[in-house]
Amino acid sequence: MTTNGALARSYLAKARVRLRALAVFVAEEAHSDVIREAQELVELALKGMLRQAGVEPPHWHDVGGLLRELPDRFPDLDSADLDRIAAISSWLHAEREPSFYGEPGLIPTEHYTEADAKRAFDDASWVVSAASQVVPEE
C-alpha cells in the first residue's frame, strides 16, 4: 500500500530531478522553458508537502494558497515562508501557459528574459529547500 509519506517523497524526488534539468535550460538560455518547468517542479514539491501533511492535493496547478491556509500543518515553516511559497506558486501558475504556448502578441522564446529565468530558477530552488524541511528523507 502506498502511503502519503511515500508519495510525498516521490514528488519531492521528481521535483529535485526537474531542478537539475532546469539548470540545463538556464545554461541553454531557454528562458521560457525555465519558467514552465519551474512551475511544474514547484507544483510537485507543494503537492508533496500537502501529502506529507495528510492533505489530498487538489487537481489544480496553483496550490500555494492552500498551504498558507493550513499553517498548523507546516510547523517547520513560518508565515513568511508560506506567504513566499504562495506568491511563487501564483506567479509561476500565471506564466504556465504563456511560457509554453504563447498567445497572440507573445512569443515565448522572445518574451521571457534571462532575469525571468533567474527568478524562476531561484524561486524553484528555494521551494525545493523549503519542501525538504517538511518532507523527510527516508
Topology:
Elements: H1 4-27, H2 31-52, H3 64-69, H4 79-101, H5 108-111, H6 114-134
What does this structure look like?
The protein starts with a helix and ends with a helix. The protein has helices spanning 4-27, 31-52, 64-69, 79-101, 108-111, 114-134. With 138 residues, the protein is mainly α. It is globular and about 40 Å long.
Give the N-terminus to C-terminus distance in angstroms.
Answer: 16 Å
**Beta-strand proportion:** under 5%
Radius of gyration: 15 Å
The count of β-strands is 0
Mean pLDDT: 96
Largest sheet, if any?
none
Number of helices: 6
Q: Percent of residues in helical segments?
A: over 70%
Helix/strand order: HHHHHH
**Model regions low in confidence, pLDDT < 50 over at least 5 residues:** none
